[in-house]
Amino acid sequence: MSTISELQLLKVLAQEMNMRKAAEKLFVSQPALSQRLQNIEKEWGTKLFIRSQKGLSLTAAGELVAQYAIETISKEEKVKESIHALKGEVHGTLSMAAASIVGQNWLPGVLKEFIKGYPQAKVSLITGWSSEILKSMTDGSIHLGIVRGSSDWKGAKKHLFNDPLYLVDSQISSLDQLMETDRPFIQFKSDSSYYEEIQEWWHRQFPAPPKNTIYVDQIETCKQLTFNGIGYSILPAIALKGANQNLFQVPLLDEKNEPIFRSTWLIGYEAAFQLKQVQAFLEIIEEYVAGEKRRINEGEIHPF
């Protein structure tokens, strides 16, 4: 029977499918990792991974053993969480995934308070597109997800905040200038509804597309190009922390002349919400959001 450290090794190898990346994640050298894998395969009496120039691939036996490793680690964590819950303590791992823009601009402040308040708890975090997060939630690999835009999630969900959208540029100060300018419109294309929402707004406002367009696949790239004067973009308020005071920020309005917002949601399953570490994290979020609203009302920070 493999020890838990060996199971963790198998889990990481199965996730990374690359010896170098797995070695870095496990903080061991590649030769040491290769030797341990050989010993594990000897113990199981079969080849678990096949090496190639493209990386690693699982054998049929390897798929079974990797799944066993992942399930065993997950079960052990759940047992530990249950034991700590009986004692009324906040331990265990808070597993979550967040939309990249939230992970970069909002979540660090929340996690800082959580770790400070519950030093015995661990945090496992991945960031990506909202569609990827929904997939991770569906397969049960994480406790909580933070997604952007309208969510059709059928489980438990909590609205966190809305942040308004702005046209941002170092030169353009009015929407009336957009049909005349040759400056590029820097657009962020993702698999979410964000890009479609911007396209719909543009077509409502103007009879023709922008004269010049730059497409990027990361909102942080879009932001940095705009902040450095390359062109103009449409960005949510959450991305404007630390923006140069010389940048113009023109709010986007809908057909009713109301601000257009981008919503952020916390999603999960009811069972996960019963875990002590999840409950503690939700309390931290409540306090953090309330604090932000107070500072917005007092004019200390940009509203979103």
Averaged pLDDT: 87
Order of helices and strands: HHHEEHEHHEHEEEHEHEEEH
**CATH overall fold name of the largest domain:** D-Maltodextrin-Binding Protein, domain 2
Decide which structural class fits the backbone: alpha/beta
CATH architecture of the largest domain: 3-Layer(aba) Sandwich
Beta-strand percentage range: 15-25%
Query: Number of helical segments?
Result: 10
Which overall shape is indicated by the principal axes computed on the Cα atoms? Answer: globular
Unreliable spans are: none
Number of domains: 3
Amino-to-carboxy terminus distance:
52 Å
The share of residues in helices is 40-55%
Taking all Cα atoms into account, the compactness measure Rg is 23 Å
Walk me through what this model shows:
- The protein is α/β, with parallel strands linked by helices and 304 residues long.
- The chain folds into three domains: 4-83, Winged helix-like DNA-binding domain superfamily/Winged helix DNA-binding domain (Arc Repressor Mutant, subunit A), CATH 1.10.10; 93-158 and 263-297, D-Maltodextrin-Binding Protein, domain 2, CATH 3.40.190; 162-261, D-Maltodextrin-Binding Protein, domain 2 (3-Layer(aba) Sandwich).
- The chain is built from ten helices and eleven strands.
- The strands form two sheets. Strands 3, 4, 5, 6, 7, 8, 9, 10 and 11 form a nine-stranded mixed beta sheet that branches. The protein has a two-stranded antiparallel sheet with strand order 1-2.
- Helix 1 crosses helix 2 (19-26), helix 1 packs across helix 4 (60-86) and helix 6 (107-117) packs across helix 10.
- The longest helix is centred in the first third of the chain and has 27 residues, at 60-86.
- The model has no long low-confidence stretch (mean pLDDT 87).
